[in-house]
Design brief:
Blueprint (H helix, E strand, L loop, with lengths): L3 H17 L20 H8 L3 H8 L8 H10 L4 H10 L16 H9 L5 E4 L5 E4 L1 H7 L12 H7 L1 H6 L3 H18 L4 H13 L1 H8 L9 E7 L3 E11 L7 E7 L2 H13 L8
Antiparallel strand pairs: 1-2, 1-5, 3-4, 4-5
């Protein structure tokens, strides 16, 4: 059951949203003989499909159980925003139903941040490790990303289907098991996601190594780590790797690689300069 303080907060929240929603906005006739602003309690009850008495008890902070279906009805009737809907469920002590994952575009600010991080490699990934955006340093590190179709610009797909990744990552086997464990843990949170299902099916068909590792059911939690690279043009270097959640869209994660030592920073700078055009001589 919800505690007394939460019930009072829930009552106050419902009352505030009811009073801020005009009848016309709710599709009801306005009229001029209204003693209170916004909707009446009986109107909210009607729109939500509950009894007036029950809704009145809710606004009075009575100790009653509220189902998720009723909370959804109240959310629609009061035209709550996603943030307000989440607050309503929290006050009622009910778990917020999972919503289908929506791919939102990477914001211009985040793209600018990726560019600002140069010459340090960085990219933005989705829950199924699709590469949503990346800077030139990351493209130079992995190579050939711009030429790939969108569905193949995926960290897990590249790891298991691109032969060059096995030589780029010094300890490919360890890296593959670790990343696959993180991928599987993320997939468990969205078992019905069609993109994840399609990706796994494609990998099962394309890579016997993936089949073997996937059947072992690896599970890993993310942890910042040091990754060792052997780049065909920039040589050997080590980078610290971390991942940050994007607050404006928590399905997006910013992944950043930073040099461990001065020699690693020099290698990244050398990699960046390799693709710079040579200035022409007059």
């Amino acid at each position: 059951m919800v505690g007394m303080m939460r019930r009072k907060e829930l009552a106050g929240f419902l009352r505030s949203r009811r009073e801020s929603l005009g009848p016309e906005a709710a599709g009801l006739p306005g009229g001029s003989r209204r003693r209170t602003p916004g909707l009446r309690r009986e109107e909210v009850a009607q729109l939500s499909g509950v009894s007036v008495t029950w809704y009145t008890w809710l606004e009075q902070g009575r100790d009653i159980t509220v189902s998720r279906q009723v909370l959804e009805s109240l959310s629609r009737a009061l035209q709550l925003t996603p943030a307000e809907r989440g607050h309503l469920f929290a006050l009622a002590g009910a778990p917020l139903p999972a919503e289908p994952a929506r791919r939102m575009p990477v914001s211009p600010t985040l793209r600018t941040l990726l560019e600002t991080l140069e010459p340090n490699p960085a990219h933005v990934i989705s829950p199924c490790w699709d590469l949503l955006a990346y800077n030139r340093a990351y493209a130079d590190l992995v190579g050939g990303l711009d030429d790939l179709p969108e569905e193949e610009r995926n960290s897990v797909w590249l790891l298991f289907t691109r032969p060059g990744m096995r030589t780029l990552l010094v300890d490919w086997q360890c890296e593959a098991r670790d990343i696959l464990g993180q991928f599987r843990a993320a997939a468990d949170k969205n078992p019905d996601d069609p993109r994840t299902t399609a990706l796994v099916d494609a990998l099962l068909a394309a890579s016997p190594t993936f089949v073997s590792m996937w059947s072992a059911h690896p599970i890993r939690a993310f942890a910042s780590a040091t990754k060792h690279f052997d780049h065909p043009r920039a040589g050997r270097f080590s980078l610290n790797y971390t991942k940050l959640t994007v607050t404006e869209d928590v399905t997006q994660h910013l992944v950043v690689f930073l040099p461990v030592a001065e020699g690693d920073a020099t290698a990244l700078q050398r990699l960046a300069e390799l693709d710079r055009p040579v200035p022409s001589r007059a």
